């Protein structure tokens, strides 16, 4: 079948022409002139039809073999194959792939046999896509969308539907992609697709933690984190693979403070607010885990009151956080530093809320903010204030006003919003006073820093005066 003979009608409210970079049009025209067809495939087509920004463009080539493709595109700076097994090339940051089909050969995520052929048609290769809205193709030369699986209709209805169950189940990572894509787009999951994903549950254990981590990160950084997390809940993924999170589901809270519902409901509300504020990943992760210690600390009292004493403490929360994060390895992030930052933020998320009650007492606030900035490291006060705001906003019952902006202003004046106070008294000062480096150094510098955090030393000169008065024989 000649791929150019394949046509499809679009729904009435979808544009027939998608604005495409001129370079891409020229590349596609060159492929056509050589006797083939170049189509834009994947998420770019979907996002453009939805009116969303999209930078990554992937091209799939039909009707040309390797040698003819390389000859046709060499003037555009086509690289040698970057993935010889997959027949993938590069033009700058654009992926150019030969038409290919994939077959599962083993249990691992990477166990696939890939075949490329100029005889493969767009309809054939579109079947290896996960969801119908991702199987849409666009021909920028003819200004035409190719839709073989009713993807345009699903785009209109905001539905995620499997393209082909036989090929879908070959890649268990697609279960997590369902959740991350739903979070990003706000789409619902078609019932048969949900059932298919539930059948794939046992296969999730074969996925490398790096790939799972990437999808979780996409969920948390999406505009609708709760949507993806609810999908993981419905599929039973939280219960089977992430019990530390699952325990929050159904964990009751005090109805006076939390009429919004259980710990899980509160957490999802906090996460969605965090997304609306465009918090970065560390804060969103801390928001997910800020009440992870509550279920184990639940105590029912008289008059239907409920308490969760010390649920935020490191003694209670850190083991759960450690167990949860052990299942992840986030690329491009210092995972040890991330874990410590999250633990510290969770441990003090109640502290920052209580601090707003003392904003009229500058001495108490300043001392507390200085000490908090040190205790939080490698996290920052700015991150803690953001977490406090997320928690406070999601609490829909009785509560004091959270004055986050005033806390930020005060922390900025103290220069501790995103770092810790630098010591005024240093080892160099002690050496200049004739002291020899040794155990006494640490003791003196530690005492001086404590005085500084309490506001009793406010500059280098006062630090020297304190030293001379406190250690006159030195």
Automatic annotation (TrEMBL):
Pfam families linked to this entry: HD (PF01966), PolyA_pol (PF01743), PolyA_pol_RNAbd (PF12627)
Transmembrane segments: none
Keywords for this protein: ATP-binding, Magnesium, Metal-binding, Nucleotide-binding, Nucleotidyltransferase, RNA repair, RNA-binding, Transferase, tRNA processing
Cofactor(s) this protein cannot do without: Mg(2+)
Residues annotated as domain HD: 264-356
GO molecular function ontology, one term from the record: RNA binding
Recorded superkingdom: Bacteria
Sequence ranges assigned to domain tRNA nucleotidyltransferase/poly(A) polymerase RNA and SrmB- binding in this UniProt record: 186-247
Name of this chain's protein: tRNA nucleotidyltransferase (CCA-adding enzyme)
Protein source organism: Candidatus Berkelbacteria bacterium Licking1014_7
């Amino acid at each position: 079948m000649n791929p150019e003979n394949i046509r499809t009608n679009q729904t009435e409210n979808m544009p027939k022409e998608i604005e495409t970079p001129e370079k891409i049009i020229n590349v596609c025209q060159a492929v056509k002139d050589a006797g083939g067809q170049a189509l834009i495939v994947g998420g770019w087509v979907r996002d453009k039809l939805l009116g969303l920004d999209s930078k990554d463009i992937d091209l799939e080539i039909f009707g040309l073999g390797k040698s003819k493709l390389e000859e046709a595109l060499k003037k555009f700076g086509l690289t040698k194959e970057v993935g010889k097994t997959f027949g993938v090339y590069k033009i700058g940051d654009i992926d150019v792939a030969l038409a290919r089909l994939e077959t599962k050969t083993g249990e691992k995520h990477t166990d696939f046999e890939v075949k490329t052929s100029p005889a493969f048609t767009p309809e054939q290769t579109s079947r290896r896509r996960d969801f119908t809205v991702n199987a849409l193709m666009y021909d920028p030369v003819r200004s035409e969308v190719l839709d073989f699986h009713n993807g345009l209709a699903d785009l209109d209805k905001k539905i995620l539907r499997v393209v082909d169950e036989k090929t879908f189940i070959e890649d268990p990572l697609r279960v997590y992609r369902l959740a991350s894509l739903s979070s990003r787009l706000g789409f619902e999951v078609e019932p048969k697709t949900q059932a298919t994903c539930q059948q794939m549950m046992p296969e999730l254990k074969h996925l490398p933690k790096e790939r799972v981590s990437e999808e979780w990160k996409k969920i948390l950084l999406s505009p609708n984190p709760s949507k993806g997390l609810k999908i993981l809940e419905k599929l039973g993924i939280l219960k089977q693979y992430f019990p530390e999170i699952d325990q929050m589901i159904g964990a009751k809270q005090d109805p006076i403070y939390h009429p919004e519902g259980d710990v899980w409901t509160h957490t999802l509300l906090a996460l969605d607010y965090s997304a609306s504020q465009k918090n970065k990943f560390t804060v969103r992760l801390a928001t997910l885990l800020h009440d992870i210690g509550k279920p184990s600390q639940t105590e029912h009292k008289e008059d239907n009151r409920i308490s969760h004493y010390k649920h935020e403490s490191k003694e209670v929360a850190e083991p759960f956080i450690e167990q949860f994060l052990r299942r992840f390895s986030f690329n491009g992030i210092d995972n040890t530093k991330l874990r410590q930052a999250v633990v510290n933020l969770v441990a003090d998320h109640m502290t920052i809320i209580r601090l707003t009650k003392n904003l009229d007492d500058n001495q108490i606030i300043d001392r507390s903010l200085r000490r908090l900035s040190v205790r939080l490291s490698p996290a920052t006060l700015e991150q803690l204030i953001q977490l406090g705001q997320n928690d406070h906003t999601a609490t829909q019952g009785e509560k004091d006003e959270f004055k986050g902006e005033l806390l930020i202003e005060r922390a900025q004046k103290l220069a501790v919003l995103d770092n810790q106070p630098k010591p005024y008294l240093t080892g160099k000062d002690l050496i200049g006073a004739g002291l020899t480096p040794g155990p006494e150094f640490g003791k003196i510098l530690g005492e001086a820093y404590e005085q500084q955090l309490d506001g009793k030393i406010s500059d280098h000169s006062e630090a020297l005066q304190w030293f001379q008065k406190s250690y006159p024989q030195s």
